[in-house]
Amino acid sequence: MKPKDLQQVLEADLQHVWHPITQHRILAKQPPKVIVGAHGSTVVDAEGREYLDGMAGLWCVNVGYGRREIAEAVYRQLLELPYYPHTQANVPAATLADRLTELVGGEPRHTYFVNSGTEANEAAFKLVRQYHRQVHPHEPRFKIIGRHYAYHGTSLATLAAGAIPERKSKYEPLGDGFLHVPPVYCHRCPFGLTYPSCALACAKQFEYAIKAEGAETVAAVVIEPIQSALGVLVPPEEYLGEVSAACRRHGVLLILDEVINGFGRTGRWFAYQHYGVTPDLLCLAKGLTSGYQPIGAVMATSRVFDGFLGEVEENRQAAQINTWGGHAAACAAALANLEIMEREQLPARAAETGAYLLEGLRRLLSLPVVGDVRGKGLLLAVELVEDRATRAPLGGARMAAVVRGCLERGVIVGRSSGAGGGFGNCITLAPPLVLTRGEADRIVETLHTVLSGGTA
Ligand SMILES: Cc1ncc(COP(=O)(O)O)c(C=O)c1O
């Protein structure tokens, strides 16, 4: 881009665009990067500078950038049929729903399409409430139990289900009927315990809350198998099984939010597949199209879906419609994306490169500022501390300096949320699943330089 054109774009941007979670006073002094191109795991700005994208956009460009075959699949579909409301059927959406059922191994098997992760979770909350109202009309099951510091989306109900103070406090009051239990955060156990002698006190909180609320009032539990935004909280092996069993004992549905975890990122198609459970509802977005088109989806088991069957006059059908739900071109993008993931065995590659990257990151533990390193597949975090002994989280200004230091060296890393509650001290990594070992080395070397070079 010519410098004059770039200046015009920046001027238009600063005058007229309102950016998310960004202080515009800072933008005036440090203008945003104008990203104009990308290939593989690299994005390119308007001045021709390349950055290794350690966050795959917003944890989503799983197959990497520049995939012609996805663009061509979308192009062909737009010419044939761009869109038609999903009260009727279309070929890519039906094929995609079938493919998703294969990927989860048969259940959940009914897919409701939406346009984002927020909408997937929001739809799941509505569907579980409607399910219980229709199937257990004498039980007022409407409460949804999530975890503190979780992130499930931007709408009022998904903000209520999550609990990140800085994202929600100014929008309160939010939706009613959402409760929270502590996260599974072994490095900073909310109970001050240590695994395994803790006997999974955090997992037991779900049953405690269900009983305390009255099981007959609880509709669902919503969790990510690996809680991402707070700093990639990989649970002990038995955690998800315990939560799932508690739900089953009390007739509570289990909603798994795999908006980030899904589509190969953790080394399997879906993260829950590591832990031997089956969700009642599975919420998907991001990696479903690797960001080539906006999409989201909720998959429900036959048991849940059957609760919506009846005569038309009974009015049991799902009582919502999204204009773009089942968008033919978005579904075509998803199909092409999944084909690439399968052909190139990207879930297995994420497991392999992820293990390699984790091993490299573990070497950073020799630096006093690194308190913990964890991850599964290509979903990882490096937790930074002021002091190893006390585990005091590294402060906000120093965290920002680490992120900036990496960026200046051409590597994009993320930062965890939860700063409002004294967290926000993890560097997060969720690169494209096509990341090479050489690129993994570069991430480790860059972090090593920045963390040992006085920036932190
Ligand atoms: C776990 C999780 N769920 C839901 C969402 C919301 O997805 P979207 O931004 O597509 O609405 C996000 C977004 O980052 C997420 O991380």
Automatic annotation (TrEMBL):
Keyword terms, alphabetized: Aminotransferase, Pyridoxal phosphate, Transferase
CDD domains from the UniProt entry: OAT_like (cd00610)
UniProt GO MF annotations: pyridoxal phosphate binding; transaminase activity
UniProt-listed PROSITE patterns: AA_TRANSFER_CLASS_3 (PS00600)
Keyword Transferase: yes
Listed InterPro entries: Aminotrans_3, Aminotrans_3_PPA_site, PyrdxlP-dep_Trfase, PyrdxlP-dep_Trfase_major, PyrdxlP-dep_Trfase_small
Highest taxon, organism lineage: Bacteria
Similarity field: Belongs to the class-III pyridoxal-phosphate-dependent aminotransferase family.
PANTHER family: AMINOTRANSFERASE, AMINOTRANSFERASE CLASS-III
NCBIfam families xref list: PRK07678.1 (NF005812)
The name this protein goes by in its record: Aminotransferase class III-fold pyridoxal phosphate-dependent enzyme
Species per Swiss-Prot/TrEMBL record: Candidatus Segetimicrobium genomatis
